[in-house]
Design brief:
This protein is an all-alpha fold. Helix content is 73%, strand content 0%.
């Protein structure tokens, strides 16, 4: 009798003592939904609606005032902010879809990185026009994040091969990152209990690919920004790069804070669900702010030329 009572007491206290890694189904999630999580869901929905409103206003402005050759790529780059908020809402509402939503946001950013390169080339009338207009030493590989590894490289003239090298650095982002995250999604579906262990083997390849891509973008922007100051390339690059920083680094910070401050992780509102909810709330607010900032930057250029 005492043994049975002990086992019963252990079963009752186990959900609070041990944080399970299992993710609830939608029905389990809705049945156990508490007030704070419901409030977060409502807030992210409102932030998403606000971000979509800003996007449509920006798109209307671009369609009516931006030169024709820049319209499609500019709108595509601005799409990243409402898309992130939309999948943020889905990620909170459907806990088991959080990694799929994260994959879509991540891959879309990588596509936008190459779109940004293409837009920059359109701004300067193509690679040939850029080479002709830059007869000074404007090309430099000594830029973050890999500047410490290439200290011997000096500034050099812009050439076709050097631009091709930068293009390949950026082009590998959507290709490599898509392949890696598709493989991780297979692991997530087939072997979720070991997912956090298996993902560690992918991290080096993900990080190296991102570092190379960001390096290429930095080389590009630092080469063009001083020559075409009216295009506000540094600002446009920052509001794009901020998405990557917020989506990749911020979760680690929030996870550490939540893990150290929240002790109640009873199923279905597990610790993973709480971390994801707080992260998506912060991310949705930040995307709204970045969307407002981007709307100011993409009002230019009305006139193209060297600064």
């Amino acid at each position: 009798m005492d043994s049975n009572e002990s086992m019963a007491a252990q079963n009752l206290t186990q959900p609070n003592d041990d944080c399970t890694s299992e993710l609830p189904t939608v029905q389990e999630y809705l049945d156990g939904l508490n007030y704070p999580i419901a409030l977060i869901i409502a807030a992210t929905v409102l932030l998403s609606i606000a971000t979509f409103s800003i996007f449509f206003k920006n798109a209307y402005h671009i369609l009516h005032r931006t030169p024709k050759q820049f319209k499609t790529k500019s709108i595509l780059l601005l799409t990243i902010y409402p898309l992130v908020t939309l999948f943020g809402v889905v990620s909170i509402s459907v806990p088991r879809a959080f990694f799929l939503c994260d994959t879509v946001m991540h891959v879309f950013f990588m596509i936008c990185a190459y779109v940004f390169f293409s837009l920059c080339m359109q701004y300067v009338d193509g690679e040939d026009a850029l080479i002709k207009s830059t007869d000074s030493q404007t090309f430099s590989l000594r830029t973050p994040p890999l500047c410490c590894f290439v200290p011997l490289f000096k500034r050099a003239p812009v050439t076709k091969n050097r631009l091709r090298f930068v293009r390949m650095l950026i082009m590998q982002l959507p290709v490599v990152q898509t392949a890696l995250f598709l493989a991780l999604n297979v692991v997530f579906v087939e072997d979720y209990p070991n997912f956090n262990r298996i993902i560690l083997y992918f991290v080096p390849f993900i990080v190296i690919s991102i570092l190379l891509g960001v390096w290429g973008l930095n080389v590009l922007v630092r080469m063009l920004a001083p020559l075409y100051s009216d295009l506000k390339l540094m600002g446009k690059y920052f509001v794009l790069q901020a998405v990557l920083i917020l989506c990749r680094i911020q979760p680690l910070i929030i996870a550490a804070i939540v893990s150290s401050t929240i002790s109640d992780c009873a199923f279905p509102i597990t610790l993973q669900v709480q971390k994801n909810a707080i992260f998506q709330l912060c991310l949705c607010f930040e995307m709204m702010v970045l969307s407002c900032w981007a709307s100011l930057l993409y009002k230019s250029p009305s006139v193209i030329g060297q600064g």
